[in-house]
Structures
1.
Amino acid sequence: MESIVVIKDVTKVIKGRTIIDNISFDVNKGEVFGFLGPNGAGKTTTIRMIVGLIDITSGDITIGGSSIKTKFEDAVRHVGAIVENPEMYKFLSGYQNLIHYARMVKGITKDKIDETVKLVGLSDRIHDKVKTYSLGMRQRLGLAQCLLHDPKVLILDEPTNGLDPAGIREIRDYIRLLAREKGMAVIVSSHILSEMEMMCDRIGIIQNGRLIDVQMVQEFVHGNTASFEFEIIPSEKAMTLLKTQFSTIPATNSRNGITLELPKEDVPAMVKKFVEEDIQVYGIKEVSKTLEDRFLEVTSDKETVDHD
Ligand SMILES: Nc1ncnc2c1ncn2[C@@H]1O[C@H](COP(=O)(O)OP(=O)(O)OP(=O)(O)O)[C@@H](O)[C@H]1O
């Protein structure tokens, strides 16, 4: 895979405080990369450095091979970004806004505007005034604006913020389409983990300014183990058995028995063991994990480690 954004050993210190602590990751062409982290973790600060809104204290970021430090113009030429709310003139139509923007940027043709409007699905309303647009339509107009110069990298900070479920879905579909059909690299940050799970190919998790994990979403969520709820009686006896003989298998009490995390192929052996120990097995159910479950698992693990 060809990486287009390379973040290498980046640190940001503000007023003596290390906000971003030596993070490195790459983003590839045609992928949607999600940036996840609790409030105050450093997502926006990292994104602001990628788009050149703030300086990097140490390390470097290259976009399309150009360093944001030494070849700023070349680097940001490849980038389209919505970091703060896109400024639009509410009393002009969506189309007039795009024309106005196009005048400030060289080489954008009317055909290009029409094509982009179509791509974001605004053709029907593009000649209406922006003040009559819904929030979702304004977001799409913002997206159209930052797509006009054909960026190779699209950066969106919380793109679905404030949208209703239909609006969220629309934006998600456009983002996936841009990555798949235009080969764009998309970097998004969001708090809505279910959204990130559906939208992203890979995610990076940031906590206290450190990048604690970068993985394919599916691998991150499912890993090589799954959760199984064993409906068993007596569950206390099973818990004791697990603690003494299978202490490496994560086990928690659940409503009807216990939930174990283990590879699917180990389930029959576990059932056999329970039966041998006179523990009655009434049922087994695979409990699917969500990105939210995994996110909370890894961020709380890390919290414990940090405080040790
Ligand atoms: N200009 C600044 N001066 C001082 N502290 C700052 C500045 N910018 C950011 N910070 C601090 O850096 C940390 C990271 O902030 P940042 O906005 O990047 O987090 P975030 O992950 O985007 O959070 P959220 O999800 O709440 O938007 C926070 O503790 C914030 O207070």
Note: Residues 303-308 have pLDDT under 50 and may be disordered.
2.
Amino acid sequence: MNVELSTDFKDKYRKLMGERADKFFAAIETDSRNSFRINPLKPNYKNVNVDLSEPIPYSDVGYYGDIDGNSIDHQAGYLYSQEPSAMYVAEVLDPQKTDKVLDLCAAPGSKSTYIATKMDSQGLLVTNEINNKRARILSSNIERMGITNAVVTNNSPKDFEKKFEGYFDRILVDAPCSGEGMFRKDPESVKYWSLDYVEQCANRQRHILDSAFNLLKPGGTLVYSTCTFSPEENEENIDHFLSQHEEMSLSEIKKYPGMEDGKPEWGNDNQELTKALRMFPDEFEGEGHFMCKMTKSGAAAKNREKNVSTGIGKEEVKLLDKFAKANLIDLAENNWFKVSDFLYQAASLDNRFKSLHVLRNGLKLGEFKKNRFEPDIAWILAIEPTKLKAIYKLNDDQFETYMYGESIILTDKPEFDNKWIGLSYQDKLFSWGRYSNNQIKNVYPKGLRR
Ligand SMILES: C[S@@+](CC[C@H](N)C(=O)[O-])C[C@H]1O[C@@H](n2cnc3c(N)ncnc32)[C@H](O)[C@@H]1O
């Protein structure tokens, strides 16, 4: 790996790290180790074509190794690529199944998707990204992983303050940062780095943290993380934040071998900062990271939720019923919610979400078209296979054909005669197929085809 560290960077860290600096610079020059997660939200989730012999010690779902982004395992949401250090953030946040969780800086979604699996897709996960293009990538990752408890929003942290004061039990601020910890994974990022850039990032992070404070319930938990080494963006910022908000205090984080304490000497000599956690690549098998966990004191006020109306008319219920009778074993009403012609199983019906730019609220079931209902890819990626009347198992050639956008011609008459069937490959549901006249018509979204 060829990482050209600037003189400013080297001088700064020589001063901060003393004798350790050369070992630290050398580690940034070495290759990083890849890792990935399996997805317990999927049926038979350990049935994947990857080596699971090297588990990551602090994660039930993380493994060292490489994955193929074009494989069925990836395409059907059984795998998610995430580097080892970043995996620990969701473990530190420790979301519970009844929590309302906010991931404030969430794209592309590696931490949100981990959080959702830890919540078993229950409770509420609001996953937000300020940048629209990145928010859409976040939304597609939420879909691929079969997550049903997430509201995906595209807002600035400030936008939340209007309606969501004291709303969330747990908040993650995985802050936009100078990315020093990612230099060896993404050597291009070295080019954007400067001493001024670090200052700009630190300033932006202070604003995001202040919003998070406003949105956190008394008694709630806030996790702050960055993938950078700079004291300004880590210990200094947290020391400043604690001095501004006396209700907030740091909590201990369990440290595994190679993980280090936060550095009080880098944060105004605040000894509480030893409770924070640092990962440096010369001591830890992962990229550079900082994490800390804080609690807000006080008792939570009663949360009065006002629900929106679901917006579904009698005609639409009939169309859905017709679809369900023909293609499903059963369909129980569950938070149905209509947005223009699209039907969702909402993650939240709380009226307050009207004030935000919501890209996805829960599970997108499908679309009402003229006289019919058509199911969405999101639904097949989240559905329990036993709920479908028919699943057609594609062979290797048929899978290739389908991924290239073509229909499947059946030579024998199949056992099913319903129109919408689940398609699986290597026992993983990945798409709907529309059956008629001995053909399975291709309905795989164009953006996902090869
Ligand atoms: C470190 S990345 C998040 C990575 C993500 N948590 C994950 O694990 O996949 C930080 C994100 O913050 C977003 N961001 C940039 N400026 C922001 C701001 N002022 N407020 C909130 N988020 C911002 C960036 O677009 C970026 O997607």
Note: Residues 86, 105-111, 129-131, 134, 156-157, 174, 176, 204, 208 surround S-adenosylmethionine (CB under 6 Å).
3.
Amino acid sequence: MEKRILFLNGPNLNLLGERQKDVYGEVTLDDVEQRCRVLADDLGLTVRFEQTNYEGAMIELIHEARTYAHGIIINPGGYSHTSVAILDALNAFIGTVLEVHVSNIHKRQAFRHKSFVSLRADGVMAGFGTDGYELALRRMASVLL
Ligand SMILES: O=C1C[C@@](O)(C(=O)O)C[C@@H](O)[C@@H]1O
């Protein structure tokens, strides 16, 4: 059976490769998407990519994912540390949830050490740079295929 994965990137991740390159590196979100599409083809997974800067839009994309996705790979950006509402939406999603942070949030300011989304995530990648997205996709394949 076809396995479908939603990649959901939250606020400011559209600026990957441009903002704070010392923290987030030079790879853009388009690069990440291209790499993950190639890997997904190899692994036999179907992927959809979404990025939004709006909390409500993220929640609606998670609700919609309930109707078609087997897994969500999410980088909630700054909402990781603030959004009970995104946690609640993920709690209404039945499939596998993997959380990705490009930076190692535990090595940064104390307010980044806690992620509400981690209370739901089945696994968390942090500090592996943008490779974390591909690593999460590989993990998704091991869990789902
Ligand atoms: O926007 C981001 C990106 C981030 O989620 C990461 O990918 O390392 C870490 C968050 O603390 C930050 O607000």
Note: The pocket of DQA is lined by residues 12, 75, 77-78, 80, 101-103, 105, 112 (CB under 6 Å).
4.
Amino acid sequence: MNKIYLVGFMGCGKSAVGRQLSYALRLPFYDMDKEIVKQQGMSIPEIFEKYGEEHFRNLETEFLKNFRDEACIISTGGGAAMRQENREIMRRTGLVFFLDAPFEDIYKRIKNDANRPIAQRSTKKELERLYYYRRKFYKRAAHIRVFTRNRNIRQIVNYIVFQVNRLKGE
Ligand SMILES: Nc1ncnc2c1ncn2[C@@H]1O[C@H](COP(=O)(O)OP(=O)(O)OP(=O)(O)O)[C@@H](O)[C@H]1O
Ligand SMILES: O=C(O)C1=C[C@@H](O)[C@@H](O)[C@H](O)C1
Ligand SMILES: [Mg+2]
């Protein structure tokens, strides 16, 4: 149990929180989306366009399966917790936090971002539906849920540090 995984919908703060958490806990930080982009030499919209979403999902599972045994923080892609296999790998190899942000916060953050193909191709209503559909999978994946409403990144990081230290002490 030496990894810390952050899961949740696009824009919930996984990358931003993961980066700050890595300073707070002095652990290396990996952003799954960025690692896949590096490996493939293509952006996420390019991977989706050229090979389709299913292929990207397989790359996510390969990443989780093959990632070295190292204490670190991993911010996952927004869809990574949808597969049971991925959830099992994360729960087995680490502590999983679900960053639970309200849809309105999320929508404000993602609506204009060209780097998120799913946000690009969906209407607000469709994204909202996807948000509610996915929640149960994030909850299933996570050991701990973090409510982010009205909390800034520093407060969220402090809460996760508190939980990690509490569990280490057990
Ligand atoms: N609690 C917060 N308060 C204010 N801004 C936030 C908060 N959480 C995230 N943000 C901002 O929202 C934007 C989206 O966050 P981020 O990129 O970390 O999301 P993500 O969960 O990694 O999304 P994706 O799944 O698409 O990779 C960033 O600009 C980030 O700084
Ligand atoms: O929610 C999703 O399905 C995604 C979220 C991003 O992190 C990327 O992994 C990609 O844009 C897909
Ligand atoms: Mg991210």
Note: Residues 8, 10-16, 33, 75, 77-78, 109, 116, 148, 151-153, 156 surround adenosine-5'-triphosphate (ligand 1) (CB under 6 Å).
